[in-house]
């Protein structure tokens, strides 16, 4: 039987020990037993976000928490800056528009990171901006942004700094408090190693002041309701109980290793994968490659989707494709959560085998050798 | 070892075969394999809702879908009628107020069902009402409403008919299309036998016209985005994949038996439980008891929470308590989803044992005998 290797940037593979934990008989959520679990989860998330502020857990996909990060701090008519360098950056802008919030877009070429000075310029011209919205890792282009440098600029202004860390957290370094982030938005199905269905927002003191002034209507994603429920170590609406139980196990694993060690492991796997692709003569799409996910340019004359299809059907390795204008041009491999050394090597072997089948010339085994050398 | 019997009206026990299904390695959602599962789930839900219209699946708790049923069809300044006879009826009103929608409340005593003529009166006085919002089973009081009779009235007006079937579906009879329901709102953790984390809305043709005119801001819960994604048998944002996979199994089980047979089974269990309580000399709180959940009045001089605590700690049976003014006065037992004959008998045995411990006089075994007689 072919083993399956899920290399997509969400969902990532859920380790067996976590799946077993989630498969136990369900418990009721208004109990001391569940409250203890929820408290551990909240504390565990704070360690990974590197924050001493609030972290709230929503039952929703990551987009729900993105909406929460807009509607809880903005009012109709406000202006926000949105960095648009891929599909997920664009989403912040779409949410803002749905709520009558003006978007000042910083459009950058897909695969590039924003220049902090450009953000500084926009903020100088528009001192009334309510928030700067960006991503840590823009998944669609596998590009990591310099969140620390942008934070140095935004923290000196009245604007809030909102970062979508959905794909990056646990693979690319992230320091919520040290970098001056006011709201970080995350999802469960990437670096946190559980299935999709939970989403998270950190909320800083500076953000709470904006919450008080916000006039966007909201109910399900209302931060104030989550803050109030937190007094009873609870959520205002029924949590996805089994996912929270799985998350407790995942956070135990990550925090026992130490999040910095987990990030270092993934960074090594990402580097191994990139060097393997280069050894095969392929190039990396992004100018600022993330450690959470790598986008590889298909060689001239070969459709990236043919590589993906061959890897999936013949070798059980699932990569993600390019989106919109990148369709057929790139394939993407993740390096976070439950994706480990075995996944990395097996996926490189599959790329080699697929490329050989598709008539691409390269030195067989050179990719795997380059990766093995780095991973040790 | 004590076995555990979860008798709460959500979450209900998740049968082992469904838990095993959900514990398999996760698959990616943008695949033919997942699309086929999602199509089966959507078709299966339509059978249980008894609708030929749309049914959308959200990753959220039931409250998220309640919000969807308001913000997709209303505009700020609109008026809606909300039947308030318990905690969940009140929630529709709170959501509406958060979006600047005027609420005409039909307040009824907790434990009573609304009188359809009262709703008719309100609609005559207020011909501009946008929608009538009510629950099928008001979980907090274990009361079922006459949704069919109210539907006869509302369908003759321009108002939409929105019903929260979160607790009732699969236990109390419900016929979306025949009864003229425009939006039915449901959750996953009750009659549908899976953990919390998914929520659903049916949407009628009449409701779609209101969607076009609606001016409430929305993004994550926007029906139009779900409708568009349904063309690709997909959701606009990442689904809670494992829960959808579990739901497919649950729907297979329910639809193989036939939803009407499942409802008849639960009705028999509910009747058995009620007759057991009466045989013990206890009384039922609701004037219109639901088959999804029963609220039992604690006998004079005994705290309902003491009964609940004894059942839980000594016999592994978890009941729900009364909320707000009913705290300490009632205990609630569910009869839906994975709650079966064994649960029913074991929970009655626990009530008998707890009452005996708490000094209440009754004929030992009379409750179990009454229930066994009905269940056959």
Description of the structure:
Chain A is an alpha/beta fold. Chain A contains 13 helices and 15 strands. Chain A has two domains: 5-11 and 259-375, Alpha-Beta Complex (Aspartate Aminotransferase, domain 1), CATH 3.90.1150.10; 16-257, Type I PLP-dependent aspartate aminotransferase-like (Major domain) (Aspartate Aminotransferase, domain 2), CATH 3.40.640. In chain A, a hairpin with an 8-residue loop joins strand 14 and strand 15. At the A-B interface, helix 1, helix 3, helix 4 and helix 9 of A face helix 1, helix 3, helix 4 and helix 9 of B.
Separate helix tally of chain A = 13
Distance N to C terminus of chain A: 28 Å
Globally, the shape of chain A reads globular
The arrangement of helices and strands of chain A along the chain is EHHEHEHEHEEEHEEEHHHHEEHEEEHH
> What is the assigned CATH homologous superfamily of the largest domain in chain A?
Type I PLP-dependent aspartate aminotransferase-like (Major domain)
Write a brief structural summary.
Two copies of one chain form a homodimer. By secondary structure, the first copy, chain A, is α/β, with parallel strands linked by helices.
SSE layout and pairings?
The structure is a homodimer of 376-residue chains.
Chain A: E1 5-6, H1 16-22, H2 32-49, E2 54-59, H3 62-71, E3 79-84, H4 87-98, E4 102-107, H5 116-125, E5 131-135, E6 137-138, E7 143-144, H6 147-154, E8 160-164, E9 183-187, E10 198-203, H7 205-213, H8 223-230, H9 241-257, H10 259-279, E11 283-284, E12 293-297, H11 304-315, E13 317-318, E14 320-321, E15 330-334, H12 341-357, H13 366-375
Parallel strand pairs in A: 1-13, 3-4, 3-5, 5-8, 8-9
Antiparallel strand pairs in A: 2-10, 6-7, 9-10, 11-12, 12-15, 14-15
Helix pairs in contact in A: 1-9, 2-9, 3-4, 5-6, 9-10, 10-12, 10-13, 11-12, 12-13
